[in-house]
Amino acid sequence: MNRTEFITVTAIILFTAFVLGWFASWLIHRLTRPTRGDMGELDRMAQQLHEAEEQRDEAIARLEEREAELRSKLVGTEAELRAAMDGLRDSRAEIEELREYIELKLARNRVQPSR
After folding, report:
1. Which of 44, 91, 102, 111 is the most exposed place for a label (fewest CB within 10 A)?
2. Can you tell me where the transmembrane regions are (predicted)?
3. Which SS3 state, helix, strand or coil, does residue 2 take?
């Protein structure tokens, strides 16, 4: 086999390999192509996914709104609690002062002779 024959045979083999590869690719593409029913189902699934994402976004928005509302109520309740605790502290101090006053008055009455 001389050089020219070798080049010719190699070219024919490479061309045949190319044609077989192209045919195999075309055949696989043809067999795996989605049908119209599959495309309709994909469209329906995409629409459902879109609706689910919208519902999720709405739920997140409601959750954030509810969380903000509860946080506001919590802040108000904490303020009321602080005010109540301050009032209780003041009342305890006043009660203690009154006890001391009463004890002082009772002690004076005991010390002073009856008239």
Report:
1. 111
2. 6-28
3. coil
Q: What are the backbone dihedrals phi and psi of residue 113, each rounded to the nearest 5 degrees, phi first?
A: -70, 150
Residue indicated by tokens 């009342």: 91
Contact 34, 42 (CB under 8 A): yes
The 8 Å CB, 24+ separation contacts for 16-23 are none
- The pLDDT tens digits for 13-29 are 999 999 999 999 999 98
Q: For residue 1, what is the DSSP state?
A: -
| Two structure tokens written together for 78 | 């904490």
- Please state, as a whole number, how many other Cβ atoms lie within 10 Å of the Cβ of residue 75: 10
Task: Answer whether residue 35 shows pLDDT above 70.
Answer: yes
